[in-house]
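Take a careful look at the sequence and tokenised backbone pasted below. I need to know what the token row says about the fold.
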Amino acid sequence: MKVFRTLCVLLAVIALGRPGHSEDPSKALLQTPPGSVGLRASRLEHIAGAADAAIKAGEVPGAVVLVARHGRIAYLKAFGNRSVQPRTEAMTTDTIFDMSSLTKVMVTLPLVLMLVEDGHLRLEDRVKRYLPDFTGGGKDGITLRHLLTHYSGLPADFDLSKEWFGYPAAMAELYRTKAGSEPGKEFLYSDLNFIALGEVIQSVTGEPLEETARKRIFAPLGMTDTFFRPPASLVGRIAPTEPRKNTLRYLKGTAAPASPDQILRGEVHDPTAWRMGGVAGHAGLFSTARDLAIYSRTLLDQGAYPGGRLLSPLTVRAMTSSQSPRDGEQARGYGWDLDSSYSSPRGDVFSEGYGHTGFTGISLWVHPPTGIFIIVLSNCLHPDGGKDINHLRAVIANIVAAAVVDPE
């Protein structure tokens, strides 16, 4: 009987180690003392001073900062307020933020690469293979690779003075848009690149972008606070941005909503994503520091998560390596920023890694050589417009770099 019991225990252990029997991946992201992962707590304490200085200077009303290493959270704190108008609310670590352009690398990028791994897409294919109307105006030679690296030649955004509303109207506008330069020649960060990629995903999968993202990214990883168009029940946890009337400045005052003075809360800030219905390949996602940490840890684990795999190690390596033209001045991976004018979250000390920023005050930098990632979430647009938070992003990265005891 004793042998039988021992055998049962061994079989149970083996079963728990198989894919699909591991613990919920969202619960595996543990918090640990900084020293246990080779970070000096005394150095990380300087983050509070940097955040408080930014709040005092009016750069942000508040922020959430998360620092992790070797798959464990070493620092997670909230500072200031998430709301100052119409009432004051303290910032909390579980605050939900409008992730703006991090939508590109949290949703559109991984889905494109999953479809590549599945054999449904090839990055060297021209976009018109999947979107037949994506022709003319210098667009015929644009490939999926050009879109992912921002070397497509497309303009940064639509002509926002034109009046249109709805997703079909956005696609019609995309197909009318002309490229400003030859594909592969010039770097220009463009929302249109990822709007097009979002439509490619929908064309290939035959289902809405948000549904594919939920099934293939958020649910498997246990990212329970990540979604497009968040439910009304969660509005109390969402960081507000600014009144819709402010975003109409970008639209030259067109398509005015019913309540232009009401501060946005749970409604996408990006004016193009808003006109598209709240879901787009370039913006529209809402998430938290912990959910973004789950995703970031998966990248550092070469695409693996407890119980499964999001992407293959070679795919993760490709998307986080330089994919820009060899003579390009701006180094980009697939979707990710490596070394460019958008690299403020890297700071002045980290010399490698990859990351991305968001217009609403969001940033992520991942540093594989040390196993560190740094998340800074703020709503710098609240309550009345954007401020430059590149200083805060860089200062926090410098503090984290100074905290490293064993660089490995």
Q: What stands out?
A: Residues 26-121+223-403 form a domain with the Beta-lactamase fold (CATH 3.40.710.10).
